[in-house]
Records
---
Amino acid sequence: MERLKRTDRLVVLSSILTKNPNTLYSLNDLAVMTGAAKSTISEDLTLIKELLLSHSLGELCSLSGAAGGIFYKPLQNEKGSKDFLKELADRLNDRERVIPGGFLYMNDVIFDPHIISRIGEIFYTKFQHTVPDFIVTIETKGIPVAAMTARSFNIPLIIVRNSGRVTEGSSVNINYLSGSTNRIQTMSLARRALPDHAKVLIIDDFMKGGGTAQGMVNLMKEFNGVVVGIGVVMTTRNPEQKLIKDYTALLELISIDAETNEVIIKPFLGKNVLF
Amino acid sequence: MERLKRTDRLVVLSSILTKNPNTLYSLNDLAVMTGAAKSTISEDLTLIKELLLSHSLGELCSLSGAAGGIFYKPLQNEKGSKDFLKELADRLNDRERVIPGGFLYMNDVIFDPHIISRIGEIFYTKFQHTVPDFIVTIETKGIPVAAMTARSFNIPLIIVRNSGRVTEGSSVNINYLSGSTNRIQTMSLARRALPDHAKVLIIDDFMKGGGTAQGMVNLMKEFNGVVVGIGVVMTTRNPEQKLIKDYTALLELISIDAETNEVIIKPFLGKNVLF
């Protein structure tokens, strides 16, 4: 690679690092990409690190040693995240979203890449200290948010299925009581999908009674997995007693009025509040 | 915001733009963020644009007029993409992946955020000229790839369900013949999920007979939608005659030997080959 000027190196380095969260680049790789000495790259990275920090654009971190290098953490700051969640709650507080049966339509929000990329970074900020090996979700509506969370962590996504699939080989199946439908259902995960003793972070779009999340926790036990955290986009105020105690949510559905269709959603302020 | 030095502005601008593909920033926004005059920002952007181009890191494009601004296109170059697909094919060419019944296990690949972010950018590169309004996929395994493609385009994702869900209101259901199971199945999309006359790009993980893709095309007709393209991660050489003619794939499953479990997968070289 040709030798770049300092400003040019800074542009190339910051683009590569921030585009690829939690991807480790050795100083050597970066030196080859930009044609600069490793010591020069180190100085560049120090400057980029300061600038990202001062603009709340995340953090650069280094890992020392032979397999070391530098990687970008897409951390979100408290003020920006609070504003974002407030706006999101306002957008969801809309009578037009209420569907007969008292359900809330929110697919446009949880399938919007700009919103869910941000949510993925917020979950990353909350759970990064738990150092999960995998993000686990259950089909279907939580998958895009879980995929973006997996992208922020740069760790694999695991999707639990609603029934065993012949195309995935032998699987572990468990029954669980779904709080929202009040019916016994089956969830399933291919034996080869998850190694033994993995640390998993469970991410889903919605929690009501916590039955589905509890099912996923039980399923993880079958793989000797350790659940390091549970994050959902929205939880409901009722029932207050959920099967799962230790979870966090971004938003709370406080009430839906079946007659007027009035919806009240607010940023979550429960026990494990994010910020 | 404090006034930044030129090098500092370059780092901040390139990080913000490349982190948020196809997100429009007005010169005014960027001027406020960095404390510089709009004319200065314009010069910075010209430099960033040249550097991204010369390092195959994508393109900066401007939109003129009152609602104008600048946005980042995450374009992938031909050489890098070919190498990437070749490596991916090699990784999948593994007897251990063959599951009784002649299926191929590839969840670890299509749920890996680093791989699917790249695939999303490759699909973006291929289909950006078709200017879709939505990415459409069907549950379950194609969702992460489709979500990353939606992220590259910065357009909403739509997930077709395998049956109508009470929580999404009235829906349009159609029957289709799934090539892989040779059974009549139902697919369903909430009426409110997609406006009339939308331009949609269909993305899925796998195509065999093309029945599922054909079903999605028919479903889109019910919404007066226009299918501007179909992209799948992997297609099969057999059957050669598929229900869908006009699609592109990244990889081709040429054969699985039921006795030896030998798998042959290569980068796709069919009619609508990507590069």
---
Amino acid sequence: MASKLTLSQTFKRLSSTFTAKTAPSKTHFHAPIPDSAFPQGYLLTGLHAGVKKKAGVPDLGIILSTASRPASAAACFTRNAFKAAPVIVSEEVLIANKGKARAVVVNSGCANAVTGSEGLEDAWAMVRATDALLKPLQGEEGQKNETLVMSTGVIGQRLPIDKILAGISSQSLKTTASSSSPSSSTPSLGSNFDAWERAAKAFMTTDTFPKLRARTFSIGGKEYRMAGMDKGAGMIHPDMGPPRASTGQLHATLLGCVLTDAAISPRSLQSALTYAVDRSFNSISVDGDMSTNDTIIVLANGAAAGEGAKEIDEETDPEGYEVFKKELTEFTIDLAKLIVRDGEGATKFVTVNVQGAPTYADAHKVASRISTSALVKTALYGEDANWGRILAATGSIAISQDFIPSRVSVSFVPLDGSSPLPLLVNGEPRKVDEARASEIVSAEDFEIKVELGLGSESAQYWTCDFSYEYVRINGDYRT
Amino acid sequence: MASKLTLSQTFKRLSSTFTAKTAPSKTHFHAPIPDSAFPQGYLLTGLHAGVKKKAGVPDLGIILSTASRPASAAACFTRNAFKAAPVIVSEEVLIANKGKARAVVVNSGCANAVTGSEGLEDAWAMVRATDALLKPLQGEEGQKNETLVMSTGVIGQRLPIDKILAGISSQSLKTTASSSSPSSSTPSLGSNFDAWERAAKAFMTTDTFPKLRARTFSIGGKEYRMAGMDKGAGMIHPDMGPPRASTGQLHATLLGCVLTDAAISPRSLQSALTYAVDRSFNSISVDGDMSTNDTIIVLANGAAAGEGAKEIDEETDPEGYEVFKKELTEFTIDLAKLIVRDGEGATKFVTVNVQGAPTYADAHKVASRISTSALVKTALYGEDANWGRILAATGSIAISQDFIPSRVSVSFVPLDGSSPLPLLVNGEPRKVDEARASEIVSAEDFEIKVELGLGSESAQYWTCDFSYEYVRINGDYRT
């Protein structure tokens, strides 16, 4: 063995300066939304409780359903073995309440992950404090734990729980008529754009803009709304599934929340969400790292469905269910893409489209591998049409059938409507017009298309590049 | 969906300057080796054939065994589905010749990967041209294809084969008495340090120093030598296995070559190499990307064994075999570590030690996941004792048993003999002395130790950090 220590001690640190392309401004991806586009029956706020050091920055978000019935609730949680306390608690609440809930509370700045039994107590305390804001429903005085909880931020540090609880109890349903007045030091619950925006801001960690979208859709001639927010922007390679009872003793992040005023049964809401999450949040990668806290929650309070309206259900109303599922899937794809768009240090937004796979799972696996390759991602940053790295990444994993190199094709697809550029056709490299290749990869957005020639299944993935800025952000996150 | 194109077109590229810590100089990891330490019966050279643009830089290496018998030969090749032409050809040669060979030829600058049928022809031409340098052995005039071939560099471009063939045929066994004279423009074959060093230099791509080591060992009272070279420094996450007949129609990189003057049967040489490679080259990662060209070759020409000496063999001489296997494993670990040490842009050399796993494969899988996490690696670069990321990476994969969070411990182990620093003990985070943590992670070399508490198997992995320089090198590799 080389005498590592003695030699390493002689290392001399050199310092030099790189000129680095930084991420472009993305603030224009956030714009005002008309108040009428938001679903009915929700009150929201975002405020500075003191988890984050910087004064005034929102770090606590509260979302309440004010409908006269508990909302149907569904969620997908990280499959990481080391689930954070809020994940464990939210799973328990959802299971105990059979898919019903009335509130969501979220903090940013501290993930409450790997915080032992104290962390669990803190998460439960957030649930109880938020529950206390809710008006008891008729005949449900005994109902408890109607709040789902989410946290994001540094792992392994305890929450400043007193500050958070004080923040929660500063709110009251009595002040709900409108949003905060500019003179008020603590913004109150509201239902207009300002309130939704403040809640979205409370989700943010390294995000550069709040991620808030709204959508209107019709089922059976009736109009509904769906709105939601999410956040990234690092430790983003989610793999989330439906809630399950935790088996462990104890146990930064993707968080998202979708709210709708449609009425749908809890079981069908979960089923639609699981489908949607597989094709949206589980198909994005910023850095290939899966968080302990990833959580997507959806509430459907039925506020626009009218009293006594029948719930949408997969079995009794398959047609309505399919429409809802499609709307939810498209909406979650929109939200998921925003996370990649704002990936830490990202200068590119790249769609990886894998076709001709034997199964959807195979297509998804190949797309995921390409989307997480450090070499592919640095080439994207360098605007280098290095398709060899795409191929090497593809071939580095096993799928359900052997690859047949002579059937594989790779092309770059520009998104301005001009012709795709074939790079590899049936295993034989094309003489590439490098100027044209550069033209395509110098665009902000483009698509990498890989045809495997082994079947008819396809999958899409969305990824970004690996930049100097990513290294800077993550080399010094905690300080 | 957001209107991506219109929005992206409005992006404005910003430019800024980072002050970046660069990789320390590593040239002191290369030092002269006494001529007597090299195995007997080999002639080597390295020269500039013209694959690389820069004049004088070695890009062609030739290694010949001059023993009176063909050497036993073994190899491990990449498991990437898109094997480069030299990998396919070397596999064919090894299988056809039943584990015998007399030469190795290597070029750097172009990987001859994804080059179709022309690439295969080029690789065969390199084999034939190098074969022609060999003196026919008595009674083996008909012997053909005794050369194994390796290439490293850009994927998808054809070799400048005429330049390479001219380089090979510039060599001749007649000039073998000594190394090149300084006045000669083309260095000739030799057996001293200078010749070995030139061969090692011909392997290099983004490597900052030639990787050459030698080792002396005894079996049954007889002294043997082992020497070898390898190269990295990017697309390094090998998974190599023994040769197998190629099933595909067609098919930068880890290359390595170990030469010994011991006599060992081809089958036992392959068996020892497969064992050694799993614990050395298959246990390192620079960037998590598996190359199409990864190849480790070992030749054992028996030149120090004496005429008619019995070959070491797993069945007939298990004791000798175990010694040889141990020596080869330690030697390949030395060579593998050099690659991590010189990983593209690396400023750290980190050992990831996973203990308490149910199986070796589980331990290896966890160690690999930690070693490839972008967030762990950027934290290493930033000298941030962010153990939460280590835990998140661990929990993100499935192993043969469920993790039990309350049994998991993580610590940082300094290599200066001072006390390890526990960060997480049985699932509960310790109040960490951040100053002490910083002290440990600011060293060039240290160890991350993870105890899973699920069994008694362990595995080691070696990794480096993710730096600005890695992004710079790989954002602009081809230009």
